[in-house]
């Protein structure tokens, strides 16, 4: 209930008859009181306010008793006081907001002193129905703090609750809390494979499961996309926070059945313990986000508790992104080449182009560090084009210097972002034309997971490449889906057995049988096989026994820059041969 007293001046005196005529013409409830607070008259609309109808508003009834029957106790007492104040002349106006719970009707209630030609008529009472406005206000307030898709709280509401938790912890350090920040791994793949309608349905079902995982006092919010946050109101330490994360993983692990499709997902969770050291919600959310991305490095269904050292790692990553922009313009990015050899003849049949970054301050930065940074931004497109162009230029240069290299192929890795560009095939054709490389000498390496993010589009792009005469290689085979149906669907020329299989083939017979199966499958599909990571003569001998055609690895040569590559080829002038 909201109420107010005002000291505004009463209106100019009017006739009682005029007021009574006006009273009965109004559609909203209006009443007149005398100088004692007794009812003089009420219009027909008042009858709807009380179960007793018009009898509740009989002339001579003390309006304070009417208030007690109509309104909640708090307003009834305030209204009674208001009547006394107005009729006594101590106040001219009393206003309040109330709700008649019997009808769920919100009313704006006002008492106003009037000056009439009849001194017995003293006060006018009006009750304005504001139910629609109240419902609109409630709807707007709900929308302001709730996510429209899932019905969960949104980021704005969550931050407000988090601010209160921080302030409470400042005054009472013993009352700690925890924030869990999570997202659904590879959710974009769900959208692209099954459509956005299914993706939205997945988010709604996931939200319901998260509600079941959260405690009664916890606050659960959707931050947008597939990202959610949980404020664990009472978390005395890491054990309670870990238990909350484990409940979430447990709830989200069972497959989702959506539109007759079964979809399994995993989540990555970052956990921050809220202590009195934090002052702002943004600081906690930043650290939770950092921990979540650290958790992603461990695979799905994993949670990571934030540690201060992670901030250093994040700062280093941001610095690397800025430095990478400079490196792409200043020539710090170079290309190394690792020979691919025929296991039957021992001759070099081609090369794989590998990006390298020689940082002026940190020295040589491994690709595993800067490639993921480039992939998270549009820098990967610039980097990919740079490597592709230099590799083609190098192949042309080698063909001029070494006649035996004229038929060799150049393998170049392609990122998912590059591959999804609408004009990707045309861009490749242009680079080949500008560098003078025949399309049949270029092999583009792609991964299974990359192709499956948008299988229909991938098939179209691959066919466009094949029409140009460019070869396509499936890289890291065996680490993704490795489905025979996908191998049949996509027009590959060859596949590369992942180094993890090659390195472990000497350990057990089972590992060797995996490679044997991959080679046999490739033969049946007419695909060539290249084994990566061949480091020992024993690896080479086993692969030859399994009838693997080609290999690359440190046993034959480490990746070489352009200058050392030429020296390497000069020393092995008789060992060069184009692939069969």
Low-confidence stretches: 4-12
Number of domain modules? 3
How many DSSP H or I helices? 21
- Helix/strand-derived category reads alpha/beta
The rough form would be described as elongated
Gap from first CA to last CA: 88 Å
Strand order across the biggest sheet? 14-15-17-18-19-20-21-22
CATH topology of the largest domain: TIM Barrel
Question: Any idea what the CATH architecture of the largest domain is?
Answer: Alpha-Beta Barrel
Q: Mean pLDDT, rounded to whole units? A: 85
The amount of beta strand, in percent, is 15-25%
Helix fraction bin: 40-55%
CATH superfamily of the largest domain: EAL domain
**Based on DSSP secondary structure assignment, what is the total number of beta strands?**
22
CATH class of the largest domain: Alpha Beta
Q: Biggest β-sheet, characterized? A: 8 strands, mixed, barrel
Taking all Cα atoms into account, the compactness measure Rg is: 38 Å
Primary descriptors:
alpha/beta; 8-stranded mixed β-barrel; 6-stranded antiparallel sheet; TIM Barrel; Beta-Lactamase; 23% strand; 22 strands; 3 domains; Alpha-Beta Plaits; 580 residues; single chain; 21 helices
Structure description:
With 580 residues, the chain is α/β, with parallel strands linked by helices. It has three domains: 2-135, PAS domain (Beta-Lactamase, 2-Layer Sandwich); 146-307, Reverse transcriptase/Diguanylate cyclase domain (Alpha-Beta Plaits), CATH 3.30.70; 316-571, TIM Barrel. Helix content is 44%, strand content 23%. It contains 21 helices and 22 strands. The strands form four sheets. The protein has an eight-stranded mixed β-barrel with strand order 14-15-17-18-19-20-21-22, surrounded by four helices. The protein has a six-stranded antiparallel beta sheet with strand order 1-4-5-6-2-3, with helices on both faces. Strands 8-9-7-12-13 form a five-stranded mixed beta sheet, with helices on both faces. Strand 5 (105-113) and strand 6 form a beta hairpin. Helix 2 (63-70) packs antiparallel against helix 3 and helix 6 (187-194) packs across helix 7. It starts with a strand and ends in a 9-residue tail after the last helix. The model is unreliable at 4-12 (pLDDT under 50).
